[in-house]
Amino acid sequence: MHSTQRRFNNTAIEASTSPSSEPKSTCGYESTQATPLQSIPAAGTQSLRTLAPQSVIAEVVSGLHNLHLRTFLEAVLHEPLIHGLITLPLVRTGEPIQFPIQVIRRTANTYAMDYARTAQEKDLLTVAAVLWGVRSLLHLSIYGDTDLQDVFCTLIRSPLHQLDDRTCQVSLILRGLIGLGDEESADESLSHLQSALNKRIKGMHACKAWLLPSIQAAIERQTVRGVLHFAQRTAAQ
Q1: Long-range CB contacts for residues 215-219, cutoff 8 Å, separation at least 24
Q2: Which tens digit of pLDDT belongs to each residue from 49-82?
Q3: Dihedrals φ, ψ of 14, to 5°?
Q4: How many beta carbons lie within 10 A of that of residue 150, not counting itself?
Q5: Which tens digits make up the pLDDT trace of 83-129?
Q6: Angle, alpha carbons 52-214-102 (nearest 5°)
Q7: Cα(84)–Cα(229) distance, rounded to whole angstroms?
Q8: Which residues neighbour 194 within 8 Å (Cβ) at sequence distance 6 or greater?
């Protein structure tokens, strides 16, 4: 994927992706020990402005047990437009710099801890929550009659298709959680999943009813205030 540059509120957003290694596990859960996909610079080697969002992204990705979901989420979060939005510094007078990815991570962790009972459920809820957070941020980069859902689907299409090829069962459930799934196909896949996941799958599908409004509220409270403040400050200069 090529590096891109977009102009956003008079600030250049530039990001690039790095190729991910192909997982060797056929099921995605061969190893229960998650290892970082990115090296995190030692404290003090970079400014907080640069270090903080990259560290958060690395922690979100490496916290997943499923190797295929880790590869998928890393690709999504390093898509140039998405990466630019989630690492946009939110500056407010007298407060530390925050980044949207920090808010997304806190919300995703809360849902995963409160509702997941297995490692696979935790992974799926975490990834779904992060994707809902990303989707709610995309409206900041959309103008005119552009459809938000079309933009979202376009940005995650390639990683999602790769996830389909690597682990169809997990991908079907994730698609259902983010509103892109075929309900009949998802139901048929349940017989092939672990019994613990089967017992909780209805609750996981129900999650999409409250994931969107809850995450949108959290993200928009933080992000819109920060962007408006930045725009006002820039206009005054």
Answers
A1: 215/104, 215/107, 215/129, 215/132, 215/133, 215/136, 216/132, 216/136, 218/103, 218/106, 218/107, 218/133, 219/100, 219/103, 219/104, 219/107, 219/133, 219/136, 219/137
A2: 445 788 999 999 999 999 999 999 999 999 998 9
A3: -130, 130
A4: 10
A5: 988 888 876 666 677 788 988 888 888 877 877 778 888 898 889 88
A6: 5
A7: 18
A8: 118, 120
Q: In the numeric block, which tokens belong to residue 237?
A: 């200069």
- What predicted TM-score, i.e. pTM, was given to this entire model? 0.63
